Every structure is written in C-alpha cells, then in structure tokens.
Amino acid sequence: MTERQELIQIFSTFPDKGVLGNFPVWVEDSQLKKSIEYYLNQLPSLPTPEECASQIFVQWQQTPESLVLQKHLTAYLGRVCYDAVQSFANKYHSYGVSQEDYFQDCQTRIGNILNKFKPEIGFLKSYAYTKFVGFFKDYVRKKCDPKAFRTDLWLLNCKTMRSTKKALEEYGLYPEEIPKYILVREYFNKLAAPTHKNGYGSLQGEADPVWERIARAYNQEKPGDFPRYNEQDIFKIIQTIIDAIVYRYFNNKVTAPEAERKERELINEEFSEELEELYGVIVEVFREIKGYN
Fold first, then answer.
1. In angstroms, rounded to a whole number, what is the distance separating the alpha carbons of residues 213 and 224?
2. What string of DSSP letters covers 165-198?
3. Which residues of 163-200 are buried (b: 16+ CB within 10 A; e: fewer)?
4. Collapsing DSSP states into helix, strand and coil, what is residue 132?
C-alpha cells in the first residue's frame, strides 16, 4: 500500500465489529473516500496524516455544520482510539474487563475530544491518544467496583428531566438521540426508583433484572422511529446519563463523549460545489504553511 492509499484509508474508514481480532476489519465510506481523494489531488505534495488532520480540523472549526469534515476527523480518531486500546492488551484479562467494551466506550468519547481540542497545543493525534489512555482508569473503576455505579444513581433523583436534557446536550449527544435517552430515564424513574426509595445499594449492577423490565416497557411504548433496546443497552444509557449529569453539574473529571450509536452513519451529503469550496480553503491554508505561495 502506498502512502497516499494509506492516507485515504485513515480518513475514510471506520472500525467494523471484530476489529480487535487477529485480522482487523475497517469499513470504507465511499463518499468520504471520494472527498479525501479530491482534497489530496489539489495539493502540490502529500501531507502527513497529522498535517492533514490539522488542516481538516481548522476548517471544521470554521464550518462545524459540515458532516463531511466531522466524519473525516471521526474516522481519523478511530485509528488513534484503536492504537490506545491495543496498548492495554495485556491488562484486560487481569482486570477482568472486556477489551471490546472498552473500545466501544472510547469510541463514544470522540465527539468531546474534537470539541475540547485546541490546535495550538499540538497535534490532534497526541491529544486524543492521551485522552483515550486516560479513560482506562475510570472504565476499570466502574466495571470492577459496582458500588461506584450504585452510588452515582442518586444523581438521577436530584436532577429533573430538563436538567438531564441540558446535561446530555453539553455531553455531546446528537439532538436526535436525546429524546431516546430521556424516554429511557422516564421508564427508569417509573420502574426502578419506586423500589429503591432509600437508595440504590441493592441494585446488582448490570445483572439486575430491573434493566430487562425497563427494556421491555420501553420497547412496548416507544415511538415507531425509536430503536429497540435490550437490557445491556438500557444499562449503558443510564450510565451515560449519570456521566452527563456529573460532567455538567459536579465538575468531575468525566470526559464527554459523542452520542453512542450502534452503527456509524454513512455520509449522505452529495459531493457538491460547497464541499469543493471547503477543501479549496484547506488547500490554501496548507500552501501558506508549506510556503508554496
């Protein structure tokens, strides 16, 4: 594979299920491939992945509504996330946690990494890698100490639905995802809270039957365009809501993620004149940095 082909892959592919196995699989997005090829064709020389990410990031900051630029950066950070998760390869068994689950947990945090990164501090790759590695301690704490999760459940009693919505917005969830999380919390309030008036110390973590009851009630009453959730999904959504509340109202060191998604969205934007104009700006910035003008 040439350097150019590798660069195209980095900015146009996403991890598939089983990516952490012996033969990693990355799924190509044809629209992203087409756009990054167009961008590279405009440059007088091939940039490094870090240079390419920096220029795309700068342009995304100026046009945050561009899904194309956002998806290029998400694809790029998927590789960084993969490397960070692999760095703990010899620790998962000893801690009794799942490498695949940790990888998925890190993937949900990409959105906030993009929102918090400042180009003047260095390369996006270095910043993101440090963040992904730093998440490991918090992940292990939650998985290995069920009391930590049970104790945090009281936060759901002290914040209203309106406060929860604001917390999820600031935490990085997409607007269309938030109503689904709010509905799950409503069923949690109906089915879990009344039986735990004095706290949630008796909840048995992810194995508690309450999550299955919530999933069944949610799936029966949800709007038709909402996804179905199983008990594991419900448990993870409640965890995300708690983290969002802590992040917004209690200034903890929880790092906000992008919305959890079962599958990566594929870009459906047309390759338009507007997109060409965006890359034209990036090219000019790159030329100035390299001294081609």
1. 19
2. HHHHHHHT--TTTHHHHHHHHHHHHHHTGGG-TT
3. ebbbbbeebbbeeebbebbebbbbbbeebbeeebeeeb
4. helix
Q: Whole-prediction pTM value?
A: 0.53
- Coil/strand/helix, residue 28: strand
Cα(178)–Cα(259) distance, integer angstroms? 9
Please provide residue 280's backbone torsions phi and psi, each rounded to the nearest 5 degrees. Answer: -60, -40
Q: Which amino acid is residue 50, in one-letter code?
A: E
| E strand or H helix at 14 | strand 13-15
Hey, what are 181's tokens? 């999380």
d(CA 33, CA 20): 23
pLDDT score, position 269: 38
Pair 269, 63: CB distance under 8 Å: no
| Residue-wise DSSP of 266-286 | PP-----HHHHHHHHHHHHHH
Question: What stretches in the chain show pLDDT beneath 50?
Answer: 197-199, 201-202, 251-276, 289, 292-293
CA 77 to chain centroid, in Å, comes to: 10
Q: What is the pLDDT of residue 260?
A: 35
Question: What one-character DSSP code corresponds to residue 206?
Answer: G
What is the 3-class SS of 29-41, one letter each residue?
Answer: CHHHHHHHHHHHH
